[in-house]
């Protein structure tokens, strides 16, 4: 599914004359997923309220597996997590089904190091559709593969939780993304398997995917740039709503080491709240932050003058 690009197909011209190889397996699977998600909307009025709450809870867990896990912990090492928290985040990441932690983090490091070049897996300069979902429907650009191999991923290789999830990724996805969300409403409060599957598994999965993809597309095209006007990533509060705090993208690309991926204050950032709570429980430590003087100096030097 997302990110799996190992099969070929007919080619068509792409950006800068590059020929894109369509991965028809991914096109078909994505089409089926979205057809199932649209059908699931019909089932919403027929489902028990607890089922809808469960689907939303699964969405939050799914999102945290990406935002607090693959992104802020494993891609950027912006804080440290104890073993129980890393295990939870790895399981949540399997519920997200967006490639295993190792591949997600490696590709994301390439996205930051080579942002909006051919080595960027979802290069926004190739258009909205490509950066949102199209990059998953074609083979990766050769630069993504070539330069991705040169990235330092020693920390990911040394993390036993990352390697365990990678080794057993398929079975963990089957259980966390589809089986558990479906069986809980059926077994505990008697929801039909049909409703449980389409609402808590399929619809929840599709919505979570788009929440992540909006960061790659919308947050690279629409919004202001108060921290660095010379880069494409933007501040987009609406994206932050769907991606539980990941929409403050101009800040994040300016200060990628910051565990909050935004300035604190009134920003809607549930992922930061989650990490802070884990720190209170003693399960997370060493949160990295950009200092206020550092932020203000950068705004004055490279910002676009917006608030």
Automatic annotation (TrEMBL):
GO molecular function: iron ion binding; stearoyl-CoA 9-desaturase activity
Every Fatty acid desaturase domain range: 53-256
Membrane topology according to the record: Multi-pass membrane protein
Entry-linked CDD domains: Delta9-FADS-like
Cofactors required: Fe(2+)
Domain of life where this protein originates: Eukaryota
Keyword Isomerase in record: no
Bilayer-spanning residue ranges: 22-42, 54-74, 168-188, 194-215
Any one GO BP annotation for this protein: unsaturated fatty acid biosynthetic process
Similarity field: Belongs to the fatty acid desaturase type 1 family.
Protein name according to UniProt: Stearoyl-CoA desaturase 5
Species assigned in the record: Chinchilla lanigera (Long-tailed chinchilla)
Underlying gene: SCD5
